[in-house]
Design goal:
Pfam families: C1-set, MHC_I. By secondary structure, the protein is an alpha+beta fold. The protein is built from 6 helices and 17 strands. 29% of the residues lie in helices and 30% in strands.
Length: 352
């Protein structure tokens, strides 16, 4: 069964030759000052549109998105967002009834999207969740809905019988979504320009770590691997993909390293900004040590274990079968309210 992805500071990796379009929908029971309904759209990890129940408007983060659609099409999308809000508002009390819940904070989430590879291969998906758990997803190849929970069997059966709607979903995921993604890429080519990564391999003496740092790249999709004597090193530690201030991305991967080891270590990077795979071989002779203030050392000592714990937690939570990893979906994803919600919903930051 498809698992829900946990978001946060950890960003996963898409294939280096893949472009993506994602829509995330979140609806929840009322909390004062907090929107009950939110839609966020991303192209290649860049947010381009947002709607929530407080604004009641479709907000384009970039004007080229509106220009590419035209006023009529943009207004139609606004109406669809408002209709989706009405549907979600009606569904929340129904799901509470089905799960014997009469109060408290509850959340409905949906993720819909598609991918386009450079070789023309396409894929698409839509799935929903309730209170941070898998609820139901659409298998477009077999034209059926799949659920892991007993109480949603009646929902599945009803959806399976709606043949017309299922064909529309299939057409949207395989055709319309891809067409919209192509249009976004065409009109946003200046905003979504490809930026070549900068790669370095460093030995951190204090920790005896060999670190491959890749930064300044766009789009987000990238493959970074570490090698020893031509053999792939399985499961190195990683920060995951993180955003830079200039809308590019960075990632670090590292391993425990014996400086007396005479083997050849290398970092290999694949990215759409590179004409071919980049291979950077670690040269101990070129290694330069930089003095680090003790305060920074202790700061790193705290940050790195937390990052490792986060990576472990991320892996234990599981991934989508499709391995989709979009960016943080909510602009209000930090602060005391988010802490409160995360206590109630450990999978609040899942991608929907």
């Amino acid at each position: 069964m498809i698992g829900l992805i946990v978001l946060g500071l950890l960003w996963g990796e898409l294939s280096a030759d893949t472009h993506s379009l994602r829509y995330f929908v979140t609806g929840m029971t009322p909390i004062p000052g907090f929107p009950e309904f939110v839609i966020v759209g991303y192209v290649d990890g860049v947010q381009f549109v947002m709607y929530n129940s407080n604004w009641k408007g479709l907000i384009a983060r970039k004007q080229w998105m509106v220009d590419s659609e035209g006023p009529k099409a943009w207004n139609r999308k606004l109406l669809l967002a408002q209709e989706q809000e009405d549907i979600v508002r009606r569904n929340i009390p129904r799901f509470m009834t089905r799960t014997n819940q009469t109060g408290g904070i509850h959340m409905y989430q949906m993720m819909t999207g598609c991918d386009l590879k450079d070789d023309g291969t396409v894929s698409g998906f839509t799935l929903r969740g309730w209170d941070g758990q898998d609820l139901i997803s659409f298998d477009k190849d077999h034209m059926v809905w799949v659920t892991p929970v007993h109480w949603a069997e009646s929902i599945k059966n009803r959806k399976d019988q709606d043949v017309v709607s299922n064909h529309l979903w299939k057409h949207f995921l395989e055709v319309e979504c891809i067409e919209w993604l192509r249009k976004c890429l065409e009109y946003g080519q200046r905003e979504l320009r490809v930026v070549t990564p900068i790669v370095s391999v460093t030995h951190l003496d204090y920790f005896n770590w060999l670190v491959c740092h890749v930064t300044g790249f766009y789009p987000q999709a990238i493959e970074v691997t570490l090698w020893r004597d031509g053999v792939l090193i399985d499961e190195p530690m990683s920060t995951g993909i993180l955003p830079n201030h200039d809308k590019t991305y960075q990632i670090r991967k590292w391993i425990e390293f014996d400086p007396e080891d005479q083997a050849e270590y290398s970092c290999q990077v694949e990215h759409s900004g590179l004409e071919e795979k980049l291979v950077l071989i670690y040269d101990p002779k070129s290694h330069t040590q930089f003095p680090v203030p003790i305060g920074i050392v202790f700061g790193v000592l705290w940050i790195i274990p937390l990052s490792v714990v986060a990576v472990i937690m991320y892996k234990k939570k599981g991934r989508l079968k499709y391995d989709y990893n979009p960016t943080n979906i909510l602009s209000f994803s930090e602060g005391p309210l988010m802490s409160l919600l995360e206590t109630r919903f450990p999978l609040l930051r899942l991608t929907f």
